[in-house]
Amino acid sequence: MFSVIIPLYNKELYIQKAIQSVLNQTVSDFEIIVVDNNSSDLSFEKAKSIIDPRIRFVSEKTKGVSSARNKGIQEAKFDYICFLDADDYWLENHLSHLKDLIQLHPNMGLYANSYFIVESNGSQRERIFSQSKEGENIVLKNYFKDISSGDSPIHIDAACVPKSVLLKLGCFNPEIHYGEDSLLWSLIFLNYPIILSNFADVVYVRSADNRSDAPEKLCFELPVVKELEKLLLHQNAFKFQDDIRACIAKQLFLNLVSCLKTGRIKEARAFVNDARISYFPNTFKLKILAVLSYLPGFVTKFILVLLFNLKLVK
To answer: Is 213 exposed, middle or buried (0-12, 13-18, 19+ CB in 10 A)?
Structure first.
């Protein structure tokens, strides 16, 4: 029923735990496809040391997690595609809850469970989602509003997509190396209904090494912004225009935070003065960072640490 795709790049400390978390699932009708993406450590060797007939190992030489996931989709034998990053892991009922969700709602474009976030300080919390109190299973009303104002309602590790939907929409954009999953979820939302469960069966380890959201990697406007701007022209996007603009503003806000964290004050001011960032829903945070962008770099970094510790900015 499920093809589980694990893209792998230099995660030798985590990959065995990720694979084992899939093997520990309470359902057994799945395959695991580990896609090595030019690892230079012992990741692939450690992955292959786990012997199970449900595991297949393939390689993708084109760099980037999008290309690795797309390779896995091409290789998949089953109708429902799940994803797991190599430094995260599942709790044992994840696939069972997804299976129940699919049986209850067979014509959706995407299914997802809730998830836990492990912060860099080791603390753990569940995803914050505005529709969580509406019931056990929730049809997503406005993906763009939710992702721009809090945690994403859909994490890549928690998502399950019919293979037919992925092939129709073109899978992950290989030119996008950050935000590629949210861009795909946006396309799915504009074309299909999405349903979520409130079962938290996934653990996203935000502190793991080589994350694509590391501050130094987010100091410049990313290609995902241009792709989000294209969605404004989608035939089904008319009533979501302001919310899509808020998503774009959130991306620019993350760029702004990263510039301040790394002392790139000139670049930070450019993001502050970008008219598109005015759609960011939390004007208080935006005003704070706007002020910080005009202070000396060492002062800005010190104040940012205080603000993060007080959870006034994150």
So the answer is: exposed
Total residue count of the chain as it appears in this document: 314
**CA dist 285 → 165, 272, 279, 295, 314 (Å):** 37, 12, 12, 16, 9
User: Could you tell me the two tokens for 128?
Assistant: 């914050």
Q: Are residues 153 and 235 in the same domain?
A: no
Give 78-114 pLDDT, tens digit per residue: 999 999 999 999 999 999 999 999 999 999 999 999 9
Range of the domain at 228: 215-309
Among candidate residues 205, 237, 270, the one where a domain is terminated: 205
- Please count the structural domains in the chain: 2
Domain holding 46: CATH number? 3.90.550.10
The answer to whether residues 43 and 8 touch, using CB atoms and an 8 Å cutoff, is yes
Residues 197 and 95 in one domain: yes
Q: What is the pLDDT of residue 262?
A: 86
Helix (H) or strand (E) holding 85: none
- Judge if 66 and 127 occupy the same domain: yes
pLDDT surpassing 70 at residue 188: yes
Flag whether pLDDT at 269 surpasses 70. Answer: yes
Query: What distance separates the 2 farthest-apart alpha carbons in the chain?
Result: 58
Q: What is d(CA 3, CA 240) in angstroms, rounded to the nearest whole number?
A: 32
Rounded CA separation 268/262 (Å): 10
Q: Would you say 177 and 220 are in contact if contact means Cβ atoms under 8 Å apart? A: no
Do both 8 and 129 map to the same domain? yes
